[in-house]
DNA sequence: GTGCAGTATGCAATAAAATTGCATGGAGAT
DNA sequence: ATCTCCATGCAATTTTATTGCATACTGCAC
């Protein structure tokens, strides 16, 4: 993990659509060396995957919401059951068990309020374990970064 | 935007490292047609970008935190100033202005608590506009998905 | 300093993939 | 039915990825 690896990772985190030739030139290596480094970074798991990031608004998911959830029962099995439940929902893009006043934080990508309503029914009102939940609708996304600084 | 485009987008959201030939076969098109579709999806902005997703733990950012922030002054210029401030911080991966009890929600990727401490100093205690903030440390990440369902 | 082992590098040949022009075929409009 | 527009597949061409191999480098023991 030297300077060149970091440079490669930074490039790939911003744009992984270029050719290996371009990248080799960008970091000052031959194409073969560059390729071998990238392969190593992938094999060792530092690079988890290479994916397309879609524009959420262009996919019809125009609403984002952040929801904090307080559970009634806090045992490990109850927590896991609830997390399994939310994880199965496609509108839930992130789900975290957290410290603090609440137990779980969700980030939702929604088509409309109707979808939110239906989701709340499934997650929070059914026979589940939810004491309270607070919804924060996202007004403005100031930053939404997939890259992790090195 | 037909069935094949959706199939392509789903594939690319999971793994954009394969060759165009593979994808063409996966969706049942010739390589040239497949390539033209993917280019169109990129050009029209449905595909925002193609990036490498790193394993956060492997990069040394082993802690995640979610922070809710209440501002003292809620005017547009104050909100914008605060959002500009947090956006400039590399540990802040997501920043949202939201409805509800709080004004801003941040998601942080941290190396250690020392970094968190320093960040709090810069964002919340300086001459800024913060009334209160609540920190939720992430205990477990149940879901962290870049793909948006179509 | 010297020698060694393990690793990274560049080069060049080869294999694979991307890209393009072009002719064909299909869907919808008139 | 005919026309237009756009997507498709094919095949030729260009570009890129991949591999073997010889060399250079790095860290380390002596």
Radius of gyration of chain A: 20 Å
State the CATH class of the largest domain in chain A: Alpha Beta
- The total of helices of chain A stands at 5
- Reported by name, the CATH topology of the largest domain in chain A is Alpha-Beta Plaits
The run of helices and strands of chain A is HHHEEHEEHE
Roughly what percent helix of chain A?
25-40%
Neighbour order of strands in the largest sheet of chain A: 3-4-2-5
Topology:
The structure is a homodimer of 150-residue chains.
Chain A: H1 3-14, H2 20-27, H3 31-43, E1 47-54, E2 63-71, H4 76-87, E3 92-98, E4 104-110, H5 113-125, E5 130-144
Antiparallel strand pairs in A: 2-4, 2-5, 3-4
Chain A binds a DNA duplex (30 and 30 nucleotides) through helix 3.
Structure in words:
Chains A, B: InterPro entries: ArsR-like_HTH (IPR011991), AsnC-type_HTH_dom (IPR000485), Dimeric_a/b-barrel (IPR011008), Tscrpt_reg_AsnC-like (IPR019888), Tscrpt_reg_AsnC/Lrp_C (IPR019887), Tscrpt_reg_HTH_AsnC-type_CS (IPR019885), WH-like_DNA-bd_sf (IPR036388), WH_DNA-bd_sf (IPR036390). Chains A, B: Pfam families: AsnC_trans_reg, HTH_AsnC-type. Chain A has about 150 residues and is α+β, with helices and mostly antiparallel strands. A four-stranded antiparallel β-sheet of chain A has the order 3-4-2-5, with helices on one face. The first copy, chain A, has two domains: about 5-45, Orthogonal Bundle (Arc Repressor Mutant, subunit A), CATH 1.10.10; about 55-135, 2-Layer Sandwich (Alpha-Beta Plaits). Helix content of chain A is about 40%, strand content about 30%. At the A-B interface, α1, β1, β2, α4 and β3 of A face α1, β1, β2, α4 and β3 of B. β3 of chain A pairs antiparallel with β5 of chain B, so a sheet runs across the interface. Chain A binds a DNA duplex (30 and 30 nucleotides) through α3.
